[in-house]
Specification:
Chain lengths: ~200, ~200
DNA sequence: ACCTGAACACCGTTCAAGT
DNA sequence: ACCTGAACACCGTTCAAGT
């Protein structure tokens, strides 16, 4: 007389497991066990592994439909939107990783495409050029999140070996900066403001 | 009396298989079969799956040690180096994907870090700022390659559904541009020049 | 030093059978 | 409509045994 299993609950549990132990550790059989149910009943509710992951990505997409935007100027609004999107993606790193490994990252462009298009239009940026800028911002946001996730996870077994740098390399401040861990937030801001600087106004 | 198996040959064959059929399709047993050898002998020569992938990533790193650089000005040299690195990564997309999924992408910074540092020094950019710019360029290059690979593979089952855009959206040129496939080369150049525009000189 | 087969503990998925 | 167990065809890895 266990609680009923629904597609909803299955997806929730799967997302939770993945968030706790990462995608590689996830298995259908493990999920079934966590749910207290036979593996095969998962297939009835949500289909196989692929379908399950597709559904998780769909969820991620719809969760990103309404992101907060604020700012005095139009450019600040664009920056704010980009930051919101990035934060949302990082909060759901594991789902983002799934989307990436399933080659769905371009879909992540969609939820905020229209808002971004509207803001660019306010600046007088339209047509093919607007498409280029829009996609450049999207790639900046998404790839920043994708890379940061991968890098942070890899940071554990990463010991920057200083043997590559001569001891008499002239710029020791640089060497030291490169040996401390990368600040991906700062990198993102740097790249973003470089992009926004190309805009009029 | 089959040909001798060596660690070299195993790695070559593995890389070839992965390049032809992608990582997901790769298996130890399949590799053994292709080599005409028992699975277990692979373990003697190169170790398990993880070790094998590590070795492949190491190869990728050493292959990227000497990239062509040319340009009249220092800024052009930086751009040329970035393009070389990107091209090299895209030519080895599958190895790049492995490096990414193993969280080794930051290691890809290393091969050209020193050259880049030297070029930045020529521009008078040093210390912490140089580290920031250097990493920004690296992230731009690597993430561009990572995203492009994922996007191109996903493009097959991607039909841009136009239902999201109203038929009376004012900027139809933009809508049409967004419905044609993304030009990742152009996006890369756009982002790169935005980054380089922040440099002095 | 090199290669083997058997065996273990896992997978995802299908399908006929139950209620 | 929902859940099950058995079975299939795969995995990666270990290990004792061969030459």
């Amino acid at each position: 007389m266990a609680e009923a299993v629904s597609a909803e609950k299955i997806l929730d549990t799967a997302a939770g497991m993945i968030e706790r132990h990462s995608v590689e550790a996830f298995s259908m059989r493990g999920l079934a066990e966590e749910l207290g149910v036979a593996v095969t009943s998962i297939y009835w509710h949500v289909g196989g592994r692929d379908k399950l992951f597709d559904s998780l990505v769909d969820r991620l997409l719809s969760e990103m439909a309404h992101l907060p935007v604020e700012g005095e100027t139009t450019v600040e609004c664009i920056a704010s939107l980009a930051r919101s999107q990035r934060r949302a993606l990082i909060e759901r790193q594991h789902l983002l990783a799934i989307a990436h490994e399933r080659d769905c990252t371009p879909m992540l462009f969609l939820p905020i495409q229209q808002t971004l298009a509207g803001l660019l239009a306010e600046l007088g940026v339209t047509g093919t050029e607007a498409a280029l800028v829009l996609r450049a911002v999207q790639v900046q946001v998404i790839s920043s999140a994708v890379m940061q996730f991968s890098a942070v996870r890899g940071a554990k077994h990463e010991e920057e070996d200083p043997s590559l740098w001569d001891d008499d390399w002239p710029d020791q401040e640089l060497v030291q900066a490169l040996q401390s861990p990368t600040d991906y937030d700062a990198l993102f801001e740097y790249g973003l403001s470089a992009l926004l600087a190309t805009l009029p106004g």
